[in-house]
Amino acid sequence: MRDEGRVSGRAELVTIGEFARLSRLSAKALRRYDELGLLRPARVDPVNGYRYYDRTQAETARLVAWLRRIGMPLARIAEVVALDDGAAAAEVRAYWARVEAETAARRELASFLVGHLSAKENAGMSNGKETGREPATLGIRYAALAHPGAVRTSQQDTAYAGARLLAVADGFGASGAGASAAAVDALKPAARGAVDEADLLGVLHEAAESAARAVRESVGGDGAPAESGTTLTALVWTGESLGLVHIGDSRAYVLRGGELFRITHDHTLVRSMIDDGSLTEEEAASHPQRAMLLRALTGGREATPAGPDVRLHDTLPGDRYLLCSDGLSAVVGEADLTRTVVAADGPDAAVNALVALAGEAGGPDNVSCVVADVVAL
Known about the structure:
With about 375 residues, the protein is of the alpha+beta class. Helices cover about 40% and strands about 20% of the residues. The strands form 3 sheets. Strands 5, 6, 7, 8, 9, 12 and 13 form a 7-stranded antiparallel sheet that branches. Strands 4-15-14-10-11 form a 5-stranded antiparallel sheet.
């Protein structure tokens, strides 16, 4: 067969059969890559349509196959194979960080559903039996504060605290202030009335989609929409538990039993590198790209395809929640955060002390924080 050997007079080219052996792919796969525009032959015979490849294309062919195996979309693969090795590595790292974040969110949702359905089953089994105890009625006391910081004169952060909504958004780009305000405002309708715990997850997803739309509309006319946007970290209160909506590198913590626990995951390049073991926490603190976001709400529909994390969080009387922008968390260590949050006599004192702490650390960025206490009524 003609496609089993080298092309006569073209020593640098090989037939599809030989190239299939070189790249360890099937001829069928190579034809498919050609059809999809992922790997074009070096030459196609105009008479018989036979495909011929340069031997140096074998590495690209294997890269396409590997990217397909990790589930990368075809359009993204076409972009990656056109990059140099360093840029391609960064794109693969960013893609996989998003995959892991989405997987983690689905894992948390699955865990919630298991717990939720198990609780319903247990409630059904004990239906009609008196426990002799009334469930505690809980409420929240809260405060919010946003400050331009030690260097900046403009304010792009938005901090909000209400009876059913706690939120921090850190805007960036030319339209960042409008983006952060739009994201928080879009969540307010979801928190205007009581939300049944069983319906909360659906309400949160709808609220997250509304926030994304609001940001796109807010920054869509600035000429470079993908360069403006906002992070968003918010908690919706049901009266029994909290629903979390989170995207970006603003953070949420809970103080419980004297320990401060972070309940959000930063959607940043350095966090993904820490997660995959290519960077230590110490190295991340001084990394030149430590502020690079992998996920945020922006003016571009395709800029960060993965949406916000959405999940439920159980509460206990005595819990103290802290939401903050990276204007606080980037300059104040968690040990100092813990000491300040523990020592503060109430949410108002806490937010004022935290903003002052960021100022003492020379924080150059806007600072915003929300503190809320869960109390028995």
